[in-house]
Structures are given as structure tokens and as C-alpha cells.
């Protein structure tokens, strides 16, 4: 059985939500950040970054929340959380999956820290552009791939939920509200939220 190393109220949320979407059994292993458990040598052997989440699956280990979402979506194809190889929808799936850690995450950090960067040099441009692009992509919906919900929605939906609803770092927009509401209406999201509340 897969083991998810996690902690409440952290970026573990997307991995939790995705595992709940698969309906597969998995074990949660709490890493107590307040006690520094993330720096224990046994945990650093799983994720040398000393951060949650991380996943153990037999002999395989990985970290980085978006990578865990991609891995688990491929591991359980019956859950239909990733377009299969050869499906043209896979192009947009990968685009949005990488847009999460590559653009949304640094844009959120930029909003929180107010650090100014040269937008030509910064891979995400600037926060305004990232949220404008997401706004346009989400205006049609219901999901990033149209009618097909995917792991990319879990990565982007978790990030937007944190940025717009939980931390109110990014102003709400009609497309964000509709999308976050659609994410939050999913039973797996609700189960993950209950777990993540600690
Ligand atoms: N890029 C990582 C970021 C993970 C991350 O920053 N986790 C934080 C909690 S939200 C953490 O474990 N912090 C503990 C520490 O740095 O000591 C991912 O997406 O999984």
C-alpha cells in the first residue's frame, strides 16, 4: 500500500485530494513539522529537501506535490485523472500540471513577498500575468481540460484555493470562484479538507 508522508494545513493537500480521488487505500504517515520530524535522517532519506509531502510506493519514493499527483494519476489509470499516452488532451494536461509549480507557486510567493523581478527573466513573468492567464483558461470550464477533470485541476485547484480562499493573497474573480466552488464540491476534496484541517 502507498504511504503518504504529510502534515495538516500544508502543501500535502493536493496529494491527499488526489489519493482520495483514486478511491485506493493508502496509509498516511504524519510528519510533525512543529517537532522537526521533517529533518529526521529517516525522513531525509525519503525527501532530502525535508519537506512534505512525500510518497513511498514499494521501492519507489518521490516528493514534490505535483510530481506525486502525476505519479499517482498514472499509477491508477482507472481513476481517469490523466489523459492516456497518445491522447491529444495530454498536451494541455502536461501544460497545466507544470504551470502549477512553474508559474502559480512562484506567483504566489511573489504576491506574498512583494519581490520585484524582471518579468522577462522570471520564468513565470509576473503574478498579474499568471493570474490573468489562469482567469482566461478557467472562464470556459468546467475544468482546465474542458469536460475532463484531471490531476492538473488538483494541482491548480489546490493552489488557487490556498491563494484566493484560504490566505486571501490573490483577489477573487468570477472564474476563480466558479472553479474553486466546483473543486470544493467534489467529495474527495471534502474528505481531504477534513483530513488536512488536522
Ligand atoms: N515544492 C514542494 C514544497 C513543499 C513545502 O514547501 N512543504 C512545506 C509545508 S507547505 C514544508 O514541508 N515545510 C517544512 C520545512 O521546510 O521545514 C512541494 O510542492 O511539494
Topology record:
Layout: E1 2-6, H1 12-22, E2 26-30, H2 41-44, E3 54-57, E4 60-63, H3 65-75, H4 89-113, H5 127-140, H6 151-166, H7 174-184, H8 187-196
Parallel strand pairs: 1-2
Antiparallel strand pairs: 1-3, 3-4
The protein binds glutathione (GSH).
Descriptive notes:
It is a single chain. By secondary structure, the chain is α+β, with helices and mostly antiparallel strands. The chain has eight helices and four strands, in the order βαβαββαααααα. α1 links the parallel β1 and β2. α6 packs across α7. The chain is globular, with a radius of gyration of 17 Å. The protein starts with a strand and ends with a helix. The model has no long low-confidence stretch (mean pLDDT 96). Glutathione binds next to loops.
Characteristic terms for this protein:
single chain, 4-stranded mixed β-sheet, alpha+beta, 198 residues, binds glutathione, 8 helices, 52% helix
